[in-house]
Write a structure and sequence with these properties.
Length: about 280
């Protein structure tokens, strides 16, 4: 049995699909009881557990040999992951595949890297087998502004430099491999897409795919933070996002990792294909 936390989320949902396609026994976890039926309809077990509820976390992990642990970017995410790791250990889970972020380590200088590192170190010290899945920016983030791109023909860029965007489905596919094949214990899997794109490149791809002119417009750090908070993000988390974005102009988010193709034996998904598959959202 493999328990998937965040099973309705950006990486968890495709992970459930990939694991089921591989024939794995999956228990999908949601905090929202109204999502249980849709999860069960995929052909897996489905249970509710909130990251704040230790007893429910233990029940969600009970009988599982492995778990996928991801939380949303949230001020409490360190405590939530800590609770899930404790619960996994308490009921005898053997291996935790945990999603963190590229560059997370005890030496990380950025807030997100430090936050993720705390849980990485905790998991290492837990005695459980561990694998860290460390992605860069998700291509799916572009969907956050799909409506305004469709309406105004403007891609708002808060990065100001190139990013090696990764398709979250590739994160899921790599996590699925780590959860079903041997040899991924104690591995740190840094994950990027195959190409780095800056705002003008993305606007050009959006224009080509939609057949409409899409231009890019820079978003200042203050504007980006205000937009994230307007979308419900907490102040400190939005500040950490802005801090992360601030290293893009220096080229620090443009490095390409070959992990996706190394693990999966096929190329990482391309941004052009992602935009094409989601064309309807952008028009
Ligand atoms: N987006 C990026 O570009 C990016 C880049 C690098 C790293 N990351 C990291 O990736 C992680 C986010 O991954 P993701 O996008 O796959 O996650 P996500 O979609 O944001 O969230 C996963 C799921 O967590 C569940 N959830 C929310 N609150 C919960 C609670 N209190 N208890 C239990 N479950 C709860 C939600 O599902 P239910 O409503 O069904 O409970 C949600 O679908 C973050 O740690 C972030 O730092 C993101």
């Amino acid at each position: 049995m493999i328990t998937v936390f965040g099973a309705t989320g950006t990486t968890g949902a495709p992970l459930v699909d990939t694991l089921l396609a591989k024939g794995a026994n999956v228990r999908a976890v949601t905090s929202d009881p109204t999502k249980l039926d849709a999860l069960k309809a995929k052909g897996c077990e489905a249970v509710t557990a909130n990251f704040t509820d230790t007893a429910a976390l233990e029940q969600a992990c009970d009988g599982a040999e492995k778990i996928y642990l991801v939380t949303p970017a949230h001020l409490d995410m360190r405590q939530w992951k800590a609770n899930a790791i404790e619960a996994a250990k308490a009921v005898g889970v053997r291996h935790v595949v945990m999603a963190t972020g590229l560059g997370a380590s005890p030496k990380a200088g950025l807030t997100f890297g430090k936050w993720h590192s705390e849980n990485q170190e905790q998991l290492k010290e837990s005695g459980l087998d561990w694998t860290f899945v460390q992605p860069t920016y998700f291509m799916q983030n572009l969907l956050w502004q799909a409506d305004s791109i469709a309406k105004d023909g403007v891609y708002h860029d808060d990065l100001g430099g190139p990013v090696a965007w990764i398709d979250a489905r590739d994160i899921a596919d790599v996590a699925a491999e780590a959860l079903t094949a041997p040899g991924y214990e104690s591995k740190v899997l840094g994950l990027t897409g195959p190409e780095a794109f800056a705002a003008d490149d993305i606007a050009a791809i959006l224009s080509e795919v939609t057949g409409r002119t899409v231009t890019s417009a820079p978003l200042s750090a203050d504007e980006a933070k205000a937009a994230m908070m307007a979308g419900g993000m907490q102040d400190e988390v939005a500040a950490a996002m802005v801090e992360l974005a601030s290293i893009a102009p220096k080229g620090y988010l443009a490095g390409i990792e070959t992990t996706v193709s190394d693990v999966l034996g096929r190329p990482a998904r391309r941004l052009h294909d992602f935009v094409s598959e989601n064309r309807d959202a952008f028009v």
